[in-house]
Amino acid sequence: MQTTHAExxxxxxxxxxxxxxxxxxxLFKLSFSDLMYRAQQIHREHFDPNAVQLSTLLSIKTGxxxxxxxxxxxxxxxxxxxxxxxxxxxxxxLKAAKAAQQAxxxxxxxxxxxxxxxxxxMKTVVEMVKEVRALGMETCATLGMLNxxxxxxxxxxxxxxxxxxxxxxxxxxxNIISTRDYQDRIxxxxxxRKAGMNVCSGGIIGMGENLTQRAGLVAQLANxxxxxxxxxxxxxxxxxxxxxxxxxxxxxxxxxxxxxxxxITMPTAFVRLSxxxxxxxxxxxxxxxxxGANSIFYGDQLLTTGNPEVERDRTLMNKLGLYPxxxxxx
Length: 330
Ligand code: SAM
Ligand code: DTB
Ligand code: SF4
Known about the structure:
Layout: H1 5-14, H2 21-28, H3 32-46, E1 51-61, H4 90-103, E2 107-112, H5 119-134, E3 138-142, H6 148-157, E4 161-163, H7 170-173, H8 182-195, E5 198-200, E6 203-205, H9 211-222, E7 230-235, H10 252-265, E8 270-273, H11 282-290, E9 295-297, H12 310-320, E10 323-324
Parallel strand pairs: 1-2, 1-9, 1-10, 2-3, 3-4, 4-5, 6-7, 7-8, 8-9
Helix pairs in contact: 2-9, 3-10, 4-5, 5-6, 9-10, 10-11
6-(5-methyl-2-OXO-imidazolidin-4-yl)-hexanoic acid binds near residues 73, 111 and 232.
């Protein structure tokens, strides 16, 4: 069938811009001022630059994981001193969600140390999602890989976001994880997307990857069509007993650059300044917000490691003139 000019124009318009690794690497190599200026321009075109989305994390099932992710305290391959505990019950989760809401969080993210959930796990998680949603909070879950049926169960429960990180570039992935492959992750993300839920996917920097590999992770995320609505950028939290515990620190300005590159390549995504804030100065965090970060994990604890205390975050936000994103200023 012949395509009219109008159709060609419409198709061209609806097709998302694709980024080559070389183009992304070139962004990383801009002067710091030029990079920040571009990121700020794009950020201000799409968002209120002073509104920050606040997500609170809760580990609903901690430790004893069958995967061997080299950064993770919860893998049963490592000895980071994290106990294998039972799944929390719905009441405990609901109590934590209410407290997070009271403290000002808009989204509640439930994380579990699973390769993938079992049938009985799913029943409980579905209850949790329904109850947290009934509080009027946005819901997010990160439970490992999903099959079609599980994805559908979460959609029906009303889950708003599913978090599943690509973690790093395909070329570096094998250095970090051997028990499942990159394509498994992409398959799960495609299921979530097809079911109509929002996708939350990002990665970790500071695991020993080079600049091309950092650009490779951004290319994977930015070239998804559509790209994720939420992109967590984690700075590796090094924990004794994990294989990556002795990895060399990255320059904090390189973390800021990563945020800026994510902002430029994914203009309408919420870019989350995620794990690693506990070790960051206020000045570096301020630079991350300038670079286009507009979401944080909010609450004293991530999954098994600490996060800045709520009081410290409130002070920082006040100091910078930032305020929590609400329905009103969205
Ligand atoms: N088990 C599920 C999975 O792996 O998909 C969900 C929980 S898992 C802990 C979620 C994400 O947290 C990982 O993909 C990784 O990006 C991040 N993460 C875990 N440990 C980390 C660490 N030590 N430093 C930075 N990010 C970390
Ligand atoms: C994400 O990208 N970062 C969060 C969340 N998604 C699940 C997890 C960070 C974990 C940091 C290490 C820990 O506390 O165990
Ligand atoms: Fe398990 Fe997730 Fe940790 Fe990997 S990152 S070991 S899958 S809890």
